Amino acid sequence: MEKIISLAKRRGFIYSGSEIYGGLAGTWDYGPLGVALKNNIRDLWWKRFVEDREDMYGVDAAILMNQKVWQATGHASGFSDPLVECSGCKKRFRADQLDDRAKCPECGGKLGEERQFNMMFTTHVGATQDESTISYLRPETAQGMFVNYKNIIDSFHPKLPFGMAQIGKAFRNEIAPRDFTFRAREFEQMEIEYFIAPKDWAETFEHFRNEMHAFIKDVGIGADNVHELEVPEADRAFYSKRTIDIEYDFPFGRKELYGLAYRTDYDLSRHAEHSKIKLDYLDEAAKERFVPHCIEPSFGLDRTVLAALCDAYSEDEMNGEKRELMQLDPKIAPVKAAVFPLLKNKPELVGRAREIYRDLKKEIPNIMWDDNGNIGKRYRRQDEIGTPYCVTVDFDTLEDGTVTVRDRDSGKQERVATEKLIRYINK
User: Fold this and answer.
1) Helix (H) or strand (E) holding 168
2) CA dist 59 to 38, 141, 165, 362, Å?
3) Distance between CA 29 and CA 18 in Å, rounded?
4) Considering all CA atoms of the chain, what is the largest pairwise distance in Å, rounded to the nearest integer?
5) Which long-range contacts (CB under 8 A, 24 or more apart) does 358-364 make?
6) For the segment 25-68, what is each residue's pLDDT rounded down to a tens digit?
7) Residue 81's pLDDT band (boundaries 50, 70, 90)?
8) Which domain holds residue 410?
9) Distant-in-sequence, close-in-space partners of 158: CB < 8 Å, separation ≥ 6
10) Do the beta carbons of residue 384 and residue 396 sit within 8 Å?
11) What are the angstrom distances between the C-alpha of 255 and each of 92, 213, 226, 229, 258?
12) Are 28 and 158 within one domain?
């Protein structure tokens, strides 16, 4: 894990938040390559679950919501984790993550009594600060969709089943953020609330179970490192009738990557009760009204980025030298191809390489120019950031119009005609 964290910083994937001021625990900044990787994963998800379907409606709800939303769902009073504090070093820990709840894992001191700690960040809206102006940074994106259910019904008149999809930030004041970006105080979710007739829940649950695994394959994460955990009733959220956690074998252990839950009609019913607004659905064919039930596939975007980096990281030896490389699936790789002039002090090579670079960049997103150092160093640098192909413009290019294309994983080099280069890389 330390090697991955070091590479992520060195090559511009992920930095510590507020680093020049000593950082802020549980916050992370994405650098240029991290942003590109994250956006590629986000776009894959949106295409599969929204653009390629006819039954999904995208929304982007506000982060700040009326405090009554969180009172209705029970978050304001019950969204908490068990906290204990050491009487010696004064550090705080989540009690449910300790092997010994009596002894501090840091200094061996005595731990105090367990108490509940609400993880929502509280803020105030407006110029005054009192009970009526309280709001929260949302701890999940789901409620923004539930409170917009009626708007979608009124605007688009969808037939059941249909879903709402959202990608957005959520915030949790974690007691002990840890494991790089895995457990952070600010993170991004990709979530669906899919509304169904109650009788259809099992079939729909299975459909999204398969779709979640298909998305993992899209991203290029190896199936051997992915596992399912059927969450027992005692550990499920009280409103869930069934929950499956999809877990990944991170270097720090097997941890939850995604979740799939059958939330019944809990959320819509609570909001209907507290808002006094009807949130039922009229089934015109059956001539009956009912509150739809909900299947929720939930994906952590930051955790997907982390899993992709962990899954892709590799070490091998090429030409007698040890190398680190990111074997990222080309669909999500932040750089699709890098273009080099063989020598940067030869104007004729640089000029031709620049022409090829500009032509590629018009047709393929995320093409990089690299003329820093010798060819070997450029290859190693591109290997580390997961670039699938390196294109070298040499003196033969000026003679016969071909370039050298090097494959990241195998190191194999092939001469390709410049007029076929775009098609070659796209394929």
Assistant:
1) strand 162-171
2) 19, 10, 6, 31
3) 8
4) 78
5) 359/421, 359/422, 360/391, 360/421, 360/422, 360/425, 363/422, 363/426, 364/336, 364/337, 364/422, 364/425, 364/426
6) 999 999 999 999 999 999 999 999 999 999 999 999 999 999 99
7) confident
8) 335-426
9) 55, 57, 152
10) no
11) 22, 16, 10, 10, 9
12) yes
d(CA 36, CA 17): 18
Q: Which two tokens stand for residue 290?
A: 């009912």
pLDDT tens digit sequence for 224-254: 999 999 999 988 888 899 999 999 999 999 9
Structural domain count, the chain: 2
Ranges 45-54, 114-123, 191-200: which has the least confidence: 114-123
**Mean pLDDT for the stretch of residues 178-199:** 96
Helix axes 2-10, 301-312, angle to 10 degrees: 100
Under a CB-based contact definition with an 8 Å cutoff, are residues 229 and 244 in contact? yes
Backbone angles phi, psi at 189, to 5 degrees: -115, 150
Q: Judge if 183 and 149 occupy the same domain.
A: yes
H/E stretch holding 377 reads helix 375-385
The yes-or-no verdict on residue 310 having pLDDT over 90 is yes
CATH number of the domain within which 9 lies: 3.30.930.10
Length of the chain: 427
Handedness of CA 140, 142, 145, 146 (dihedral sign): negative
On the question of a cis peptide bond just before residue 161, with omega within 30 degrees of 0, the verdict is yes
Tell me the CATH number at 393: 3.40.50.800
Quote the crossing angle between the two packed helices 201-219 and 32-46, to the nearest 10°.
140
Beta strands in 327-395 (DSSP E): 337-341, 367-369, 389-393
Residue 174 exposure: Cα atoms within 13 Å on the Cβ side? 18
For residue 78, the model assigns a pLDDT of 73
For 132, other C-beta atoms within 10 Å of its C-beta total: 10
183: DSSP letter: B
pTM score of the predicted model: 0.92
DSSP annotation of 50 reads I
- CA atoms of 133 and 124, how far apart (whole Å): 5
Whether 286 and 146 map to the same domain: the answer is yes
More confident position, 225 or 79: 225
Q: Phi-psi region for residue 243, left (φ > 0), alpha (ψ -120 to 50) or beta?
A: beta
> d(Cα 268, Cα 150) in Å, to the nearest integer?
10
DSSP string, 309-359: HHHHEEEEEETTEEEEEE---TTT-S-SEEEEES-TT-HHHHHHHHHHHHH
- Asked if 412 and 406 touch (Cβ cutoff 8 Å), the reply is yes
